[in-house]
Amino acid sequence: MAEQLLNFTGKVVLVTGGATGIGRAVSLAFARQGAKVVIGDIDERSTETVRLIEEAGGTGLFVPTNVSRASEVGNLVKTAVETYGSLDVAFNNAGIFVPPAPLAEHSEEDWDKTIAVDLKGVFLSLKYEIAHMVTAGAGAIINTASIAGVIGDPDMAPYVAAKHGVVGLTKAAAVDYAKAGIRVNALAPGLTDTPMNRVWLDDPAMRDAVLAGPQMGRVAQPEEMVGMVLYLASPLASFVTGGVFVVDGGQTTR
Ligand SMILES: NC(=O)c1ccc[n+]([C@@H]2O[C@H](COP(=O)([O-])OP(=O)(O)OC[C@H]3O[C@@H](n4cnc5c(N)ncnc54)[C@H](O)[C@@H]3O)[C@@H](O)[C@H]2O)c1
Asked: 13 partner at 20 to 30 Å CA-CA among 135, 137, 219, 236?
């Protein structure tokens, strides 16, 4: 039964930040489960994700999109609906991370850049996706927050603020649209081996400090985020909305 409920054949799934990392792994997984996947990203490596999707027998489309620009996000949703006829699921996952520093050493530019992509980008994505889903009367949305959205990770003030904001937006959207048949949840990944984390993982001293975080003593692979996202997008999660789902190898348990 679970296998059938995790089948997305005929569904249209929008993924922001699908060029690399978690977004690529999730895009491939949805495609393997039968979905048509539309990727919005600023990075041309999205074409490689589409190629991998097609190689696996799936259908994918890259729509160059900067999630901090309203017109581009509007165009992304419009293109998905016009190309494939609907928008059933959205994974709002695009994000950036500025070099770590204590709060007072972060520049105004660090703040503006982080908020523009990590928080405003999720707001704009929700806004345009929901406008379509309300008309359709159904939809499932998963926003990528972070463990930095539930705890005050050190040296990451703009990111921590943005990701706490994503948790807030998730709850607000879930409340506003629960009766419209739209479920909105957040994934809160712990440390995951993606290009974003190179700043930590490529530096031997930092790597040791970072690996002390997760109780499992290792970082996650991007594929280890897939199960939670597919579950939240599926009818298995039909009574789940407004939740924040931590996948962190136990890091935030103490
Ligand atoms: N890697 C981790 O340890 C970790 C932990 C917690 C949360 N996250 C979150 O997971 C999400 C995915 O990150 P990742 O780790 O896979 O890193 P990543 O760098 O591989 O992926 C981020 C993606 O977002 C895209 N992107 C960046 N700015 C964009 C913009 N303005 N418009 C559209 N796309 C844009 C990038 O091109 C890239 O494809 C992010 O929201 C990140 O904050 C990551």
From this structure: 219
Is the pLDDT at 155 greater than 80? The verdict is yes
Identify the residue whose C-alpha is closest to ligand 1 atom 14: 21
Q: How far apart are CA 50 and CA 93, in angstroms?
A: 17
Query: Looking at the predicted structure, is the pLDDT value of residue 46 above 80?
Result: yes
Q: How many domains does the chain have?
A: 1
CB of 97 closer than 8 Å to CB of 196? yes
Predicted model pTM:
0.98
Is 128 inside any structural domain?
A: yes
Q: Catalytic residue, from 84, 159, 177, 231: name it.
A: 159
Q: Output the CA 133–ligand 1 centroid distance in Å.
A: 24
Q: Does ligand 1 come within 6 angstroms of the Cβ of 214?
A: no
CATH number of the domain that 90 lies in? 3.40.50.720
d(CA 138, CA 130): 9
Do the beta carbons of residue 96 and residue 68 sit within 8 Å? Answer: no
In the residue annotation, 159 being an active-site residue is answered as: yes
Residue 129 placed within a domain: yes
| Structural domain range at position 119 | 2-246
Which atom of ligand 1 lies at the shortest distance from residue 46's CA? 39
Binned at pLDDT 50, 70 and 90, residue 237 comes out as: very high
Percent of the chain with pLDDT over 90: 89
